[in-house]
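thoughts on my protein:
***
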Amino acid sequence: MEAISNRIKRVLDEMHGKSDIRESYVIRKDGLIICSHVPSTSSHRISAMSASLLELGKRTLKEVAGDDLKLIMVNGNDINIIISGSGDIALVCAIGADENVGMIFIRIKMAIKKVQAILDEAYGKTIPGI
């Protein structure tokens, strides 16, 4: 049987091949990296900060409107970060500030579903350690 990390890496490779995503990370909600594509030297810090942003966004939405979080987007002058969660995982993507985010949102949504299916098949509905 193929390693789980290789299967997830293929999903990320496919997502990158069809869009202009610079780098991406599949992370656990506690901030640990499951898999990455074109990781930077600060990937562990990016992962931890992304998990923190997800938790803050989720708490804020619950407090303000009782709503559930879909994604967080951080806009910069040159780069945008999109963080989207599903269950116990999240997908963090860095894109150029001028990219078409509509198409990238679709790619991210599809990739999260595929990664979640891989993890559900391997571990059931919860990831070990969470």
Notes: The longest helix spans residues 43-65. The mean pLDDT is 89. Helices lie at 4-17, 43-65, 101-123. The chain is about 45% helix and 25% strand.
